[in-house]
Amino acid sequence: MGNTETHGAKLPNFAPQFDFMRLWLIFFGLAVSVVACSPNNVREDVSLDKYFQDNKVTGCFGLFDNGQGDFIVSNTKQFRDSTFLPASTFKVVNSLIGLESGIVKDDSTVIPWDGVVRRVPEWNQDLSMYRAFRYSAVPWFQELARRIGKENMQRWLDTLGYARRYTRTPIGTIDTFWLDNTIKVTPDEQLGLVKKLYFDQLPFQHRTMEIVRRMMLMEDNANYQLSYKTGWEHAENGDNIAWVIGWIEENKHPYFFVLQIRLAAGRTDIPQVRMEILKKCLKQLGFMEGKR
Question: What are the residue ranges spanned by the domains of the chain?
Answer without folding.
Answer: 18-284
